[in-house]
Queue: 2 jobs
Job 1
Amino acid sequence: MSGPILQVNELSVRYPVGARWLQAVDAVSFSIDRGETLGMVGESGSGKSTIAQALLHLVPASGGSVVFRGARWLELGRNELRKSRKHIQIIFQDPLASLDPRMTVGELIGEPLKEHRPDLGRAERLERIVSMMERVGLARAHLNRYPHEFSGGQAQRIGIARALMLEPQLLVCDEPLSALDVSIRSQVAMLLKDLQRQLELAILFIAHDLASVRFSCDRVLVLYLGRVMEIAPRDALFGKPRHPYTAALLQAVPIADPVRAKARRISPLGGEIPSPLTPPSGCVFRTRCPLAAPRCAQERPALRQVGASVLACHFAEQTQLAR
Ligand code: ATP
Ligand code: MG
């Protein structure tokens, strides 16, 4: 790892809803180093996919900046973007829905090359396709098959191969394992990890499932209602969660052992997520926070470093004591 390949500064995205604006992402900052996997977690609607889409230029940012490979990524002109777009690729939750059912596996994996590397001859293209298929665990014999002939896990391998064909430097994975059977999740997670090591890929790994984040990620960003609550190295986050929301998310994972479950001091995450159209004043998590105090309604907490974590909580220094 050697310095950030992606630097996101105060990124904001809003959607028009009727006559109002819904602030889906609110001044979010983070970075990803070369070869690093950053996990992004948070309940449904926290803005994870919107951040991914903004990085891919699929939705416009309403504020902030993104520096990718040393250039201001959101301001690239059309021509520059056409050339540079291949450096960030995405894989989605539902592999089958994102693959054209009329194309064969070979065509699907080879399509990005056709567009971006028209200089390659047929034979060389085929060679690259087959070598990528082998890399992701597909056989040459699958070349002329169609995506619907594959299981979810195999289809996700096709999606991964297609995304990696142009040797991107950042791979955005938006819930890549959620739609897969539990039994094959770990295989695909393992594959992503191996590929990352071999290719020195940076990965933004969006997930609900904390176990897969723990397995796959070097650092983790916790998002709530479009804002960063905490960013911490994996072991610090799981071993010593500092933000009350992070702690609640971890505790919301079911505990099988009833004695340990009873010993929990903070109740698992309860209550409704407020509407993003009318977010709470001050700290957006305060309406569900066990530590909330009057100050939390008045002042938006800034992100600051405490121990190994960066977190947005007025009581950052005391959260460990409170539990
Ligand atoms: P999930 O875990 O369910 O995938 P998410 O964290 O990916 O959720 P987003 O899909 O980014 O969340 O949504 C963030 C917020 O923006 C939500 O309140 C959502 O309803 C809203 N939103 C997303 N897309 C649009 C859209 N096209 N128009 C209006 N609002 C949108
Ligand atoms: Mg999403």
Job 2
Amino acid sequence: MFAALDSIWHVGLPFAQTDGFWLPGAATTDPAMDRVFYLILVICSLLFLLVVGLMTFFLVRYRRLPGRKAEKTATQNILLEATWTVIPVVIVGVIFYQGFVAYMRMQTAPPGCYDLRVSARQWAWQFIYPNGHIDDNLHVPAGEPVRLTMTSEDVIHGLWIPALRVKMDVVPGRYTSVWFRADKPGAYDLLCTEYCGDEHSSMLATVEVQTREDYDAWLKDAANYLKTLPPAEAGKLLYKRRGCAQCHSTDGTAGTGPSFLGIFGKSQKMADGRSVIIDDNYIRESILEPQAKIVAGYQPVMSTYKGLVSDDDITALIEFIKSLSKKSPLRAPTHSVDRGEGQGVGK
Ligand code: CUA
């Protein structure tokens, strides 16, 4: 019986590509979540109307009138009691079944998924691609099932992509996974949904759904930036892609960490009273062992990037920070227009 009900239910509900009143537009043609949501919404709305309707009716029908005597309270009615027990049980059963089907669909990745890794940290997402490239935005090929295997380096984060109807906690010390199939090319929001500290609200990323060709071209190009760009330019990209920007500004504004503007070569007072010159070695140490020397006035909240950045990455980052201390700020070379945004994105 359930199978028959299920097939009726799964036919004829078109998925909304544009934003609706209740849900944002979906980028997938298989939004099992939407069915459950609308099912519960409809059932709850009908029950609400029924309850409020009956209340209003009884208020009017049995209101106090001069000369009217209160009727005797009924004590037992087997038929009535059976009815109001059986009907809710059936309703709960239907909701459970639909929820269970949608949950299993969400949990069970189809064979042949395209696998990507996700690493979350305070307060940035890192998407790790099969060729080793790490990016702060998620690029996926359209029309193919994609599975994300996720873990956190510090506290619990939550990965949420409303347009793809997936949401899953990202937990330190273990792996969680989600899968989805993005059918509609475009850019979609990705958010963190577990309160994870200071900059939780800026732990955002973009999901770029691209055609297979665009995706392959992007990935090949994206992984090469260390070789093709001047070190300071590559460092600027890394600064954005690895989440440095969440805590360290480049305009002098103090954030969770010190701003990078004009710090290179300066003497800084540390929390333990020492003075330290901000040079290549200090920056290298601060990336690999952030707790070693904390600048006075800041909390020791940064976690290490050991194993996550290469020596070339560190050199590029140092060159970028150095470039922020020069009289004339970093100029974009003519051959590369800020490659941090939208390179090779098929729109
Ligand atoms: Cu990560 Cu909130």
